[in-house]
Specification:
The complex is a heterodimer of chains A (78) and B (111). Helix content of chain A is 28%, strand content 26%. Chain A is of the alpha+beta class and 78 residues long. Chain A has a domain of 49 residues: 2-Layer Sandwich (GMP Synthetase, Chain A, domain 3). Chain B has a single domain, classed as 3-Layer(aba) Sandwich (Glutaredoxin), CATH 3.40.30.10. In chain B, 50% of the residues lie in helices and 15% in strands. In chain B, helix 1 packs across helix 3 and helix 2 runs parallel beside helix 4. The radius of gyration of chain B is 13 Å and the shape is globular. Classes of the chains: A alpha+beta (78), B alpha+beta (111). The interface between A and B is medium-sized, with 13 and 15 residues.
Chain lengths: 78, 111
């Protein structure tokens, strides 16, 4: 059951206010995405914690309706 | 659920480097699992694996145990290191190799 890219962006930004989110549809099937999330909220947190914050924002959809999301997180743009 | 947590703890305790994955290292059944196996193989790390596709209990249990929704998941000396994206990023920056060295895991890089 595919998810729209815009919904993914909205959920992440609701969960992590002020986050910059870039989404790429990797396979064009609405099921395999790559997301880059930039947020000050990640500062001082481990990669695991950063990814868990994004998964938390997606509220259990990850691994369910959202099959594949290649995730890159950072506190600020390089 | 506590029974499956015990099984997971037991596996993690028995194996210094343990990968929960879909399929096996020789026949991975998901691109993310395959990519993670490749990073480990590239470093020459000896690792054990659990094929979650043949064990429904662990398949669900490991997600709750690690509070991580996806497979693969890598454990090194009892500590959750991450999923595919984190492992690949750490591999590329050299952090993964450093982690294994710091934890005293031997690396036998293929010449």
């Amino acid at each position: 059951m595919p998810m729209q890219a815009a919904d993914i962006v909205r959920l992440i930004q609701e969960g992590i206010p002020g986050a910059e989110v870039e989404i790429e549809d990797l396979a064009g099937d609405g099921d395999h995405y790559a997301a880059t999330v930039v947020s000050q909220a990640f500062a001082g947190k481990s990669k695991i914690q950063q990814h868990q914050m994004v998964y938390g924002a997606l509220g259990g959809r990850m691994g369910g309706v959202l099959h594949a999301l290649k995730l890159t997180t950072m506190a600020q743009k390089p | 659920m506590s029974e499956v947590f015990d099984r997971i703890r037991d596996e993690i305790g028995k194996n210094d480097v343990l990968l929960f994955m879909k399929g096996t290292p020789v026949f991975p059944q998901c691109g993310f699992s395959a990519a993670t196996v490749e990073c480990l193989s590239e470093l020459g790390v000896k690792f054990a694996s659990v094929n979650i596709l043949v064990d429904a209990e662990i398949r669900q249990g490991i997600k709750e145990f690690s509070q991580w929704p996806t497979i693969p998941q890598l454990y090194v000396k009892g500590e959750f290191v991450g999923g595919c994206d984190i492992i690949r990023e750490m591999f590329e920056t050299g952090e993964l190799e450093q982690l294994f060295k710091d934890k005293g895991v031997s690396l036998a890089k293929a010449a």
